[in-house]
Amino acid sequence: MSTKKRRKVIAGNWKMNMTPTEAKELAKGVYEQVKGKKGCDVVVCVPFVDIPAVAQIVKGTIIKLGAQNVHFEEKGAYTGELSADMLKAVGCEYVIVGHSERRQYFAETDQTVNKRALAALNAGLKVIICVGESLQQREEGVTEELVRMQTKIALRDVTAEQMANVVIAYEPIWAIGTGKTATADQAEEVCGQIRKVIGEVYGEAVAEATTVQYGGSMNAKNCEELLSKKDVDGGLIGGASLKAPDFAVIVNAATKG
Ligand code: PGA
Predict the structure, then answer these.
(1) How far apart are alpha carbons 128 and 123 in whole angstroms?
(2) 236 CA from centroid of ligand 1 (Å)
(3) Is residue 115 over pLDDT 50?
């Protein structure tokens, strides 16, 4: 099947990097490098405090703005959290949900990932839902079961219509920030399994239309091979998204196929 039906999405995940001043510079750099590019969506998911500064730079450009987390309640006594409406109000179009660092360090569970995804979708945000196995889980041979389960639970009560606003990022934990990338075949295999489970829940048409990214040490050198795979519809990029020229190489690679 051709990937033509699906839009590739290249999203930078800046994680806990960049003060607002630095973020402005990086966003300007990214803009300079990717302006005029066609054929893939470009997103930068920035720390909360950087959102206003980056919003100013990317407004009216091809770069879309995203956050890295969102709370599942609309408002109330949730110290330190931000709601989906708040993110929308400051110009976010996307939000990452369920990144493995949030699952690992902040006790995020499949259930809270689902609640956050629903809150974001119901507020009109697009979500990038992260799933992926640890090294131990891969070695135990449970990657497929685990990723199927994470995907299914994350999407509980998400409607077929809302799936148009869902991106799934397959991010093997052992490949994140380690320099150890999954091989293109490993990425393709699991992205295909994710598409299969989406097909089981929502039917073939939704599965074929859903963007499934790979993330985990994707960089300027390995992006072309990863993105050439038919079920890999883009990337969620950490380290390499902090250098505008490297990020631009990945965007370029995504515009090709
Ligand atoms: P990395 O991070 O590219 O630095 O491995 C990817 C991610 O965590 O989204």
Answers:
(1) 15
(2) 7
(3) yes
Render pLDDT for 59-107 as a digit per residue (tens, 0 to 9): 999 999 999 999 999 999 999 999 999 999 999 999 999 999 999 999 9
CB 169 within 8 A of CB 236: yes
Residue whose CB lies within 8 A of the most ligand 1 atoms, among 236, 241, 242, for a mutation test: 236
Q: In angstroms, rounded to a whole number, what is the distance separating the alpha carbons of residues 231 and 1?
A: 9
Question: H helices then E strands: how many in the chain?
Answer: 11, 8
Closest CA to 184 of 249, 142, 235: 235
Q: Report the C-alpha gap between 39 and 252 in whole angstroms.
A: 9
What lines the ligand 1 site, CB under 6 Å?
A: 13, 171, 176-177, 215-218, 236-240
Point out which residues pair with 190 in neighbouring strands. Answer: none
What DSSP letter does each residue of 212-234 carry, written as one string? EEEESS--TTTHHHHHTSTT--E
- CA 238 / ligand 1 centre spacing (Å): 4
Radius of gyration of the chain (CA): 17
Cα 100 to ligand 1 centre (Å): 10
Contact 153, 110 (CB under 8 A): yes
Residue 170 contacts residue 191 (beta carbons within 8 Å): yes
Q: Which of 12, 45, 96, 37 is nearest to 253 (CA)?
A: 37
Task: Report pLDDT for 72.
Answer: 98
Sign, CA torsion 217/219/225/229: positive
Q: For tokens 């196995």, name the residue.
A: 133
Ligand 1: nearest atom to the Cα of 241:
3
